């Protein structure tokens, strides 16, 4: 299940999160304060998203896991997210 508000539907950042995760909550607050839009996907409600997180993290369901500009970040800071926004997408 994807959760997004009106300004989040085209956000360049996707956060895989859990409602009860304090790291997820903290990152969401910090991104809002920084004015960086994002889209949240609750992996406890979306099995496909949970599987994607496990693929990214090597089998664990670590949250927050963030997709930004083609980069996959696990429990990143706002500065790491800003850097990924500014960077070119990784070469496949």
UniProtKB/TrEMBL annotation:
> What start-end ranges are recorded for coiled-coil regions in this protein?
none
Q: Which CDD domains match?
A: NrdH
Where the record annotates domain Glutaredoxin, the positions are 13-71
**Which SUPFAM superfamilies would you find in this protein's record?**
Thioredoxin-like
Alphabetical list of InterPro entries matching this protein:
Glutaredoxin, Grx-like_ET, Thioredoxin-like_sf
Record-given protein name: Glutaredoxin family protein
Q: Which species is the source of this protein?
A: Nocardia suismassiliense
């Amino acid at each position: 299940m994807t959760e997004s508000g009106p300004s989040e539907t085209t956000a360049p950042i996707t956060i895989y999160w859990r409602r009860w995760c304090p790291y997820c909550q903290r990152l969401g607050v910090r991104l809002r304060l920084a004015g960086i839009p994002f889209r949240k996907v609750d992996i406890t409600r979306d099995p496909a998203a949970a599987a994607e997180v496990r693929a990214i993290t090597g089998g664990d369901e670590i949250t927050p896991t963030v997709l930004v500009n083609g980069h996959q970040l696990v429990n990143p800071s706002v500065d790491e997210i800003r850097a990924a926004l500014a960077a070119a997408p990784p070469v496949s």
